[in-house]
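Example 3.2
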Amino acid sequence: MTIVNHTFVHMSSAFQIVVSLANSAIHHEPISADIKTLDFGSVIRCARRQAVDGMLADLPLHTYVAPQDKLLFAQWAASVAALEKLHHTHNSEIVRIASIFATANIRYALLKGQCSASHYPIPAHRRIGDIDIYVSPAHFSKASLAMNKLGYTFDREYPIHAIYKKDNFDIELHKTLQNTYWWPSKRRLARFLAAHFDNENISIPQMQIFQYQVNILPPEIEVLLHTLHIRKHFTSSGIGLRHIYDWSLCWERYKCDVDWPQLREILEGTHAMRMFRILFYFAITHLGFRWSEMMLNGKPLTSSEIKLAKKLWLMVEETGNFGNDLKHDVGISIVHNVYELYLKRRMQAFALSHTEVTAELLHKFFQIITGGLARRNFKRFLPQSSNK
């Protein structure tokens, strides 16, 4: 048997290769000449950690796969075909829910998921999960009744959304876009939504799914949602490439349509402007988007922002999508696990928004002390041998 030597001239890690391949897919560009032969196993494992492996199906990877990886490649290709089918079933269910909501005059908007996918070159190749729908507070109880009529069962409730389940579908009905712990930010976000979406005198933009028009968020709120969502996960479990691409493609789609003074005001009001600027830096530095930093209100990133951005980019590589493969060590003390899997993430992202991180830590520890829900959730930081 011939042994194939997997060589990469300038790209030293699977993560760098995955970013390069994903950029080629997003920008319709040839695969980098630095990539000669793919160590497909390591590349696809990294792509799955980052939830971008579906995007790689847009590329002629079969010409780069070594003979011993052909079976693995075929298995991955089959998973992409399953992903395309999943998109179709999700779209069908979204249309079913949207039509019922429209009939009941429920003010709603599709979030993330299929809305984000619509910005990709091939929407069916973006990894998806739950179906997220924002519902105006005045219509929330009516939306809950509609979900029951659609055959969904209420599962549980969180501060920002309620979860409904049916068959293989998980629907998250959002009461607000994203949980914010700093009270002034929470109030500003609520007022912004009330003024720019919940107000029934404002028309709601739409996107077409199959032959049906589904409500989506206005551009300013859509960009704000992606920014707040990524900041939240940077300060907790971690974030993967998929959400960085979601943000970048959202901004690429809406950068000429957003009301920048309005967006800037709410970003600053929720202390999310630094996160926005760092995501902008990621897009132009790592993801191949050709934007000028002058778009950032004429203010290029400062040296401290660039330093923080570099640290957070390393976190993307380290944690993967939502930090899903960060494991709790068996036999290690609770202090070690709490630090490694909880406090360390907050400390690393403290400079993103010290008010938000501090408020969240105080909120969590208050819940633990008072015996709230966080105490039960916090048990996941115990060593596995102590969880029995």
